[in-house]
Amino acid sequence: MRMPVFDLHCDTATSVLGSDCTPVQSLRSRKGHIDLERGNKLSGYAQMFAVFTTPDMDPGGRVTPEQIAQAAIRNMQEELERNKDLAMQARTAGEIQKIADSGKIAAIFSLEGPAGIGFDPGRLEELYHLGFRMSTLGWNEKNVLTGSHKTGGGLTDLGKEYVRECQRLGILVDVSHISDEGFWDIMDITQAPVVASHSNSRSVCNVSRNLSDDMYRQICATGGTVGINLYTNFLAQGCADLDSVCDHVFHFLDLDPSGEHLSLGGDLDGCDALPAGFTGIESYDTLADRLLQRGLDERTLRNLYWNNAMGVMEYAVRIHQKSE
After folding, report:
1. Please, what sign has the CA dihedral across residues 207, 209, 210, 212?
2. pLDDT per residue over 88-99, tens digit each?
3. What per-residue confidence (pLDDT) applies to 320?
4. How far apart are CA 129 and CA 21, in angstroms?
5. Do 11 and 268 form a contact (C-beta atoms < 8 A)?
6. CB atoms within 10 A of CB 18
7. Residues near 42 by Cβ (< 8 Å), separated by ≥ 6?
């Protein structure tokens, strides 16, 4: 079934760069999981493009995380300008809808790992004005803000400041990759919806990157959303297919039958193995068909594919307006 797609996480913005930070692929047409020509064939498409940085991404020291972040942002801006017949940058839910209605792709910027801004809450306003609307507190490392799902360890005082500043500005706080302790520390102080942009169910696939049932319920309670991740290692212990993706969707729906807190967060161009039957952005229609075959109703499917992600974007804008 053709359905508009709003995907909360991909790594395309950094995957098109070479080791020296120069672009090596065009966003318009490429061999990865996402390009603009394929995305433009969907019946509406909004994509959160994550700028990914971590302290350990270049052990040789040739480039810094900040240089990588700046190169990714600059290249995305240039690519969107070159391909404005297919895509435009969006900063609000209203802009996303307007761009989608015009038949173009809406591109929204997000931050995966604040190493690119030196983990400095004082630089978030700069990112906000560049159009960033979501940020994790780290990746798989322990840093000055928090521990990760691999290391453990909760929020530091600086991490709490980072969360508060994100929410003051209207930047969604993304808990994917964070430690369990850090997750609950955020829940103790959050004043806005919390997002897990690309995380699955720990009950279905027991890995630390996934969410426990209690975590999912708590994200729902904040008014937030969880983006279903398509990386096979987070879908099943062993081979994964479209039914593996459906298993996570239906488990989350068992926990929250409203269907108002579940979205897409494919992790495309950020993972090396996708479930059988899913090759890239073009396969979201195929996944929609399988979900319907498994018994999902069209209203919940539309919420999953579009409405729920739009809802958290709308809330983030309202939070920013209140803070001004």
Report:
1. positive
2. 999 999 999 999
3. 59
4. 23
5. yes
6. 10
7. 2, 4, 5, 281, 282, 284, 285
- Burial class for 254, CB neighbours closer than 10 Å (0-12, 13-18, 19+): exposed
Which ranges of the chain have pLDDT less than 50? none
Q: Report helix angle 284-293 to 242-255, nearest 10.
A: 60
Residue type, 249: V
Cα separation, 296 vs 177, in Å, equals: 28
Tell me the one-letter amino acid at 54: T
Where do the DSSP E strands lie in the chain?
5-10, 45-52, 87-89, 105-112, 132-135, 172-174, 194-196, 225-228, 262-264
- CA dist., res. 286 & res. 212, Å (int): 28
Q: By the 8 A CB rule, do 237 and 224 touch?
A: no
Residue 305: what pLDDT? Answer: 98
Other residues' Cβ atoms within 10 Å of the Cβ of residue 272: 7
Q: From the CB of residue 190, how many other CB atoms can be counted at a distance below 10 Å?
A: 21
44 to 2, 94, 288, 293, 308: CA distances (angstroms): 9, 14, 14, 22, 15
By the 8 A CB rule, do 193 and 224 touch? Answer: yes
Token pair 């039958």: residue: 257
For helices 213-222 and 180-189, angle between their N-to-C axes, nearest 10 degrees = 20
Q: What is the pLDDT of residue 57?
A: 79
**Which DSSP string corresponds to 295-307?**
T--HHHHHIIIII
- How far apart, in whole angstroms, are the C-alpha atoms of residue 226 and residue 30? 28
Q: Which helix (H) or strand (E) holds 14?
A: helix 12-15
Helix %, strand %, coil % for the chain, to 5? 45, 15, 40
The position carrying tokens 């720990």 is: 202
